[in-house]
Fold:
Amino acid sequence: MGGSTLVPWAAARLARAVRAGVIVTMFAGSAAGCGKFYWTKPGSTVGEFERDSDACARQTSENPTAAANGAVDMKAYRACLTARGYIRRQHATPPTDGYRGFE
Structure:
């Protein structure tokens, strides 16, 4: 007999294990996407971030109106803030030293 079959109790146990694995994987995947992105820089103030964010927006948009409305080249905007010492991270709750840029 080359094939293998599971006895009913083993098949039920296997089915429960597979369902549990799927649920855990779905939960872990959805939890990883929770939260918003914040920029942090040790010792910076809100005013400093706003100035840096505005400067980066102006550098990475077509015109001042577009920059003021957040119409920026997002990759270049993020690179600009990173070059100024900010770190972008996702947080489930707002960090005390975190700032929201154009996201």
